[in-house]
Design a protein that fits this description.
The protein starts with a helix and ends in a 25-residue tail after the last helix. It has two domains: about 45-75 and about 240-355, Orthogonal Bundle (Cytochrome Bc1 Complex, Chain D, domain 2); about 75-235, no CATH class. By secondary structure, it is mostly helical. The chain is about 45% helix and about 10% strand. Helix 2 (about 50-60) packs across helix 14 and helix 7 crosses helix 9 (about 190-200). A three-stranded antiparallel β-sheet has the order 2-1-3. A hairpin with a 2-residue loop joins strand 5 (about 325-330) and strand 6. The chain has 14 helices and seven strands.
Length: about 375
């Protein structure tokens, strides 16, 4: 039996499958990516020197030693309540005793009770003054409201925590004036105090839970307890984010406007996916490109001196404003002792390109995870 046709078809199928998976698939993924981020903002293509710098980066082979692909890991979600609902018992049931035992939680609902009792006292006081009111009954109601307010203040002051402003913020109530002073709050809040109250959050998860583990809690907080909250992705086993190399993992959309996508070959040098956010000092970047070991620094990066204009310095010459300098024990000196070094257009373009490489903006498919300690302790304070 002649098997040549089958062999030919098998080879053709294998080649087609490889092309589909390695060429067409990735190309389709990039082509399907849109500049619109879905929140009213868009990604913008590079322009000017930064656009020209992409070619300089490519022709100097920078992608052989550097990647632009920050690796990801796993992340969980921390549920951060920004304002509690009205029902303490229901909220306690939803978030569990582990978090409800925290003093911030208790203080927040104590503040809610004080605010409610204070409103009731004001209403009772207005009832006493109302025309045609039953004065005796109204005064009795005012006395009861005053007693309830005293009890609420006593209960609130019995809960000791240094995070009183956070508790006030997540309580969702406003307490001012002498009443604030009686509760250990500032009578007149500074701008910093107001900011702390406005940005207060209370975490009710460990930050390691996946969406399937917390979705019922999220829905219950929203639909049943009426709480306001936000979900914060927290990085776990994510070296590039933990080490400050990047803010998030790299995705195909990061290469959307590149003429030539250069994700990199290997990490002889650091990943450059977010180098623009780390390297904001333009002069320091020029010095790094000119000679990465200038000033006694240790680096495997080769010098790119041919991207700069270099001439001998004249005696007692003052360095021009665009000269590349480094700081030493003797002050600021030229990056090359005895010479004046200035960047060429190619060096300026390369630096502009590098400073355009940022991934400090979250994307729908790659949110910015937090790297920090979980907000609340395991046990109540």
């Amino acid at each position: 039996m002649n098997k040549s046709p089958w062999i030919f078809l098998g080879v053709l199928f294998a080649m087609s499958l490889s092309w589909w998976g390695m060429v067409f698939g990735p190309a389709s993924q990039v082509n399907a990516a849109k500049a619109d981020l879905g929140d009213g903002t868009s990604l913008h293509p590079r322009s000017g020197l930064a656009q020209q710098g992409e070619q300089i980066y490519r022709e100097n082979g920078c992608y052989y030693c550097h990647t632009r692909t920050a690796t990801g890991g796993t992340f969980g979600y921390e549920i951060q309540i920004t304002q509690f609902g009205a029902d303490e018992d229901l909220t306690r049931e939803i978030i569990g005793e582990k978090f409800a035992a925290n003093k911030i939680f208790e203080k927040a609902f104590a503040f809610k009770a004080v605010a409610g009792a204070n409103d009731a006292k004001k209403a009772a006081s207005e009832a006493v003054k109302a025309e045609g009111a039953d004065v005796e009954a109204a005064e009795a109601g005012l006395e009861q409201a005053a007693e309830a307010l005293t009890e609420a203040k006593t209960a609130a002051n019995a809960i000791k925590t240094e995070e009183t402003l956070i508790a006030l913020g997540v309580s969702g109530v406003t307490i001012e004036g002498d009443l604030a002073g009686e509760l250990g709050l500032p009578i007149e809040m500074s701008e910093a105090d107001k900011s702390e109250v406005a940005n207060a959050t209370f975490a009710v998860s460990n930050g390691i839970e996946q969406w399937d583990e917390i979705k019922d809690t999220v829905r219950a907080l929203k639909d049943r307890a009426g709480a306001q909250f936000k979900l914060l992705p927290v990085a776990d086993e994510w070296p590039d984010v933990v080490n400050g190399v990047a803010r998030r993992q790299s995705v195909s959309r990061d290469f959307l406007f590149d003429s030539h996508a250069m994700p990199g070959v290997m990490r002889v040098g650091p990943c450059l996916s977010n180098v623009g956010a780390r390297q904001t000092d333009l002069n320091a970047l020029y010095a790094k490109i000119y000679n990465s070991q200038a000033g006694g620094q240790s680096s495997h990066m080769p010098p790119y001196k041919y991207l700069f204009n270099v001439r001998a310095a004249e005696e007692d010459e003052t360095l021009p404003a665009d000269a590349v300098t480094i700081s030493t024990g003797d002050g600021v000196t030229s990056v090359e002792s005895g010479f004046v070094v200035t960047p060429t257009t190619k060096a300026r373009a390369l630096a502009a390109y590098l400073q355009s490489l940022r991934n400090d903006k979250g994307l729908p498919e790659a949110p910015l995870p937090a790297v920090r300690e979980i907000s609340n302790p395991e046990e109540g304070e």
